[in-house]
Amino acid sequence: MEPRIQYAQTTDGVSIAFWTLGEGMPLVYMPAGIFSHIQLESQHPSTRHWYEALAKGRRLVRYDGRGTGLSQRDVTGFSLDSYLTDLEAVVGRLGLRTFALWGFGDSGPVAISYAARYPERVSHLLLWCTWARTSDPPWIDALGELMRKDWEAYTETVAHGLLGWSAAEEAGRIAALIREAVTPETALAATRAGNELDAVGLLSRVRSPTLVLHRRQTRWPEVDVARGLSSRIPDARLALLEGESPLPQLGDTESVLAAIDEFLGEGEPAAAPLPSGTAVILFADIAGSTALTERLGDAAFRDKARELDGALRVAIRECEGVPVEGKLLGDGVLAVFTSARQAIEAALRCGKAGNEAGLSLHLGIHAGDVIREENNVYGGAVNIAARVSALSAPGEVLVSETVRSLARTSAGVRFEDRGEHALKGVSEPQRLFAVREGA
């Protein structure tokens, strides 16, 4: 099944097409310059398998840059800032706080620039067969006139030049994708702008853990370019792999994936089991679900609820919580955390996601002992979290006094006292607090 195409809007009003695949640590996979078409790529077996392998255990994000693929085509301006704007639109649309970033080919200078500007956001930087300053091989420069006069011949020549003349079938497919991905006029304008991209001066400012990947026998860019990158980025690692294809999905993909998994795995928290002791419990439920079902219809309501359910589980995992599997939104989403601060952050993000989806949520948090059985958690603390959630106003986060005590010096939020409440099945009244953003 092809990933679902979605759109993000840039600050200068350009629509950027993207898809996501998998769940877990986000990996944003930048386009290799202007030759990008996220739908056609996914239809080819080798590329589809490559993306599926990358998405195992993580959330892969792939997008088309402005003027290409399924993104808005009627664009005239190309620059480093505009490419950074495309990236920012996608990560903003997905609400990604931190993510690994993959720069490939012409997107290398953009990835380096973003990592240097926003070190707190890029958890890992991966650079594949790329450079800091655009430096096309002489034969590319010589094709400028061919681009204007014979677009098909130009695309065939570029594809064979990159992959070799013996790779007839694969080069033909790449050439066809290029013709679908971009117009000759856009390709010419973007190529001119690309020749001005220069992130050399930013290499020493990159603070994210960086892995430079390159194949030894690739004719362009030459392996010395990769050595230069790794030597100028502080503490960067260099992985030189065997093979000649500049496309990671061709040739020996297993060694590429192994290097990526090893590198990214160092920053990924181990999957925590549901705790069988003290935990912070978040309970979320849709406000007025019965009325919404009657207004929207059961099928439409369930579709919207399932989509929101997925967004909530991503937010929970990104805040290092563990959502309890097997419970769908509408019956309530339950998650456990080891930190009150992380639970509150996740609840606030869930509330925003619900409001954006038009399905406001009741959100409640309590902390206490839980009992784990298979893929569920039970106990009085879970029941209290559900009762606290039911008392919250739509879109509001309510917490128990226990949670407030755990988080009041670390969560960066304010707590508004809502007084004591008698909760069903709980012998003693519970003092509750509404969470307000801003310390």
> Please, what is the average pLDDT?
86
Largest β sheet strand count, sense and barrel closure: 8 strands, mixed
As laid out across the biggest beta sheet, the strand order is: 1-2-4-3-5-6-7-8
CATH uppermost class of the largest domain: Alpha Beta
Low-confidence stretches: 267-272, 326-330
Integer count of domains: 2
What is the percentage of strand-forming residues?
A: 15-25%
CATH superfamily annotation of the largest domain: Alpha/Beta hydrolase fold, catalytic domain
* Total beta strand runs: 17
Given the structure, what is the number of helices?
16
Provide the descriptors you would attach to this structure in a database record.
single chain; 439 residues; alpha/beta; Rossmann fold; eight-stranded mixed sheet; seven-stranded mixed sheet; 17 strands; 23% strand
Report what the structure shows.
This protein has 439 residues and is of the alpha/beta class. The chain has 2 domains: 6-265, Rossmann fold; 278-437, Nucleotide cyclase, GGDEF domain (Alpha-Beta Plaits, 2-Layer Sandwich). Helices cover 40% and strands 23% of the residues. It contains 16 helices and 17 strands. The strands form 3 sheets. An 8-stranded mixed beta sheet has the order 1-2-4-3-5-6-7-8, sandwiched between helices. Strands 10-11-9-12-15-17-16 form a 7-stranded mixed beta sheet, with helices on both faces. The protein starts with 5 loop residues before the first strand and ends with a strand. The model is unreliable at 267-272 and 326-330 (pLDDT under 50).
